[in-house]
Amino acid sequence: MTSSPGSSGGAAPGGHPGGDAEYQFSYGRFVLFVLGAGVIVLLISIPIILALARWSPIAGLVAALISVALMITAIGVTSKRLIGKAERALRAQRGMNPPTR
Question: In whole angstroms, what is the distance from residue 92 CA to residue 43 CA?
Answer without folding.
Answer: 37
